[in-house]
Amino acid sequence: MDPNPSKRLRTTDRGDGTGGGGEEEEERAVDVSIIMPVFNASCWLDECLQAVLHQDFLGSMELSVFDDASTDDSRTVVEGWRTRLEERGFSVVVSGHDSPQPRGVGYAKNKAVSQSRGQYLCFQDADDIMLPQRVRLQYEASLLHHNSLIGCRVQRQPEGSTERYTRWINSLTQDQLFTQVYTSHGPTVVMPTWFCSRRLFLTVRPFDEGGKGVPEDLLFFYQLLRQGCGLFRVDRCLLVYRYHEKATTHSVTEKTIWKLRVDFLQERVLSQWEKFTIWNAGKQGRMLYRSLNPINQKKVRCFCDVDENKIQKGFYTYEESKERPKPKIPVLHYRDATGPFVICVKLDMTGGILEENLNSLQLKEGADYYHFN
């Protein structure tokens, strides 16, 4: 890798979202493009770009920014960093559009990728802060795991926000990156930490451009797994992951996420099982049962639980069913139930009791049970 890469000349957008104009640019690809969609991020950009500037990666780098119709001075702030970044050896391309409405984060990411030239893509949210080692360590991991999506551990800011979610991100084992993809937390390799080869990105698909309310990261993540791609996490904290009420993730409804998760569970797991048990006879377990297609509903052997009140009732009646008589599913104590299991109890919410119960049955995650919670 050339420690002093020559700069590729790129120009800012003419306002039509098509990228640069008349200047010639080198055809040679850079090693890593930092992909940054921007929408009204002015208050965070200085801190974000300062961190980009301080990356200790010695290869050639590019910053590719697409501004999704910001109404603040985001574009001006980014342009203010151009000289410093180019002096550091970065190629810089900044474009965007000035439509009355933003077209969504999926659209902005796709545009930032399409105008970039990196052999590897490092996705960076404008409100987050990458630590100095991020590009280097994830690039090195990508060379070893070339067909994998690479993530890392994170530090949440403000400290203590989304405590359970942050603990989950950072504590997943390599196997659990695959087995816990059905949980409500979303992608096990969380989007703000994504790093991958351009070849992998093009193999999967562009991001969904449906706009506000579309979980473009989860849709891409599930498609990546369908394509047989791998997952890997660098077990170092390489990103300060900011939590705030304006984050785009808040626009996605639980109903949308739920349906995607159920469909993926049926496709990847339940289609392989002849019978299974839903672990939780309460609201979440019954909701999963009602969401299954008729074929998989008939595969449900029983519900299991630890709540004596639910167990004493003996069964759950599916009142919404058009079948006559209406299906009645037995409710058993978990020790009397037979696997495999779909666990519909929230992780990290029972003081370790759920985990102890699973361990007592000597069950293996990813074979005897999957979490769906």
TrEMBL record:
- One Pfam match: Glycos_transf_2
Locate the Glycosyltransferase 2-like domain: which residues? 33-197
Where does the record place a coiled coil? none
The lineage's top-level taxon is Eukaryota
Q: Which GO terms describe its molecular function?
A: hexosyltransferase activity
Q: Which InterPro entries match?
A: Glyco_trans_2-like (IPR001173), Nucleotide-diphossugar_trans (IPR029044)
Segments carrying the region annotation (Disordered) are 1-28
For this UniProt record, give its keywords in alphabetical order, as a comma-separated list: Glycosyltransferase, Transferase
Q: What is this protein called?
A: Transcript variant X1
